[in-house]
Amino acid sequence: MDQPSIGTSPDLPRTWIDSDRPLARAVGRPVQQFMGIEASGGIVLVAAAVVAMVWANSPWQASYVTVFHTHLNVDLGSFHYNETLVHFINDGLMALFFFVVGLEIKREWVAGELRDRRAAILPAVAALGGMIVPALIYLAFNAGGAGADGWGIPMATDIAFALGVVALLGSRVPSPLKIFLLTLAIVDDIGAIIVIAVFYTDDFAGRWLLGAGLVILAVMAARRAKVRYHVVYVVLGAALWFCILESGVHATIAGVIMGLLTPAIATLSDDDAQIVVDELEDRDDLTAADVHRVSILISEAVPLTERLEHLLHPWTSYLIVPVFALANAGIVVTSHGLTNPSSITLGVIVGLVVGKTVGVSLFSWLAVKLRLGVLPEGVRFIQLVGIAMLAGIGFTVSLFVSSLAFDFGSELRDAKIGILLASMVAAIAGSVMLILTADPDAADDGPPPPDPSPPAVP
Questions:
Q1: Predicted TM-score (pTM) of this structure
Q2: Domain 24-201+250-266+303-437 class, CATH top level
């Protein structure tokens, strides 16, 4: 007697997220996996930041400076690279982080929440408010002063940290509100990328920008020719990173561009993949080579964006971003700095804690009143205010922008102190608000169960 396929036994319960419904496949499972990784990655991120702070304020603080300011020298012909380890982490390793961000944006734009433009309007407008208001508040403290260049610091939301807090709150935060936060953070990432590329860039070198444009055309040509050999794209990505590095634009933008150029539509349909499986089902002469060939073919039924995100996300969440935090969060804290905060520190704290809350909440309210968007199903506005508070967790991208805005010195130290304090306050305040406003009678059981009626006969 034929054995049922794994997971298809009638005795095993099947949830909506495990079903074969298009929405579950295209949105539900990818979002579930993405949020799961971000939640645990956020814990590792916080742990790395704590280690950096303890290390930088311990009797061994000199070793912290020695390690991360060690110079790396690379000479290849006319190419000469001589930067500190922290610069290598910020310029090189973080390009992979922004590559995953680009993949995430592309996936959401093609097959996720951003595909439904009307559903994306509310979090997009909210994200816009969450960038404009904090920047204005920061400038109110620092316009015309030495810290004026840091206006982009409080604009960012740390998606890993924020989703980690939401995950710890569990069923107190309904699923539609989690999706709202995820979409808001993605739009926020887009804004941060634009700010970095346009406003935090050195002098442009036109010939290198032209070279970057030619590499982009080469990537597009390879896509059009359906080149599947990943090494080709790795080489082109490295060339793009180098060209952008030399052009004066921050090199991490290369990661975003490569992510956005990655195909987000599967080259093999589900029906074609099933045909391949059916052809092999009754064969008794299968070899390991046959199985390997077919497995590669069937993998084409999964979009490349999803495959790469699945491959790289653990590396960025558990290694690259924590290493970045370890290298950048080590701030020497003094009692004078805490009791007499500078205008930079105050601008960052008020911008992230107050600016994000006011900006996201106010712009969301205006969008609803003007009927540009609607609140997520089952979500009350007061709960959205709690999410707005969590958006004040700037951390990773805020630290990144601070390293672009200021050279090493008191301004950078003051900005980092503000980021760490603001992120901690925003996490606590947002959590308290979401706990107090949670509906005690509405358990978050996830999406609705699948329709029990039998499928229609084609």
A1: 0.74
A2: mainly alpha
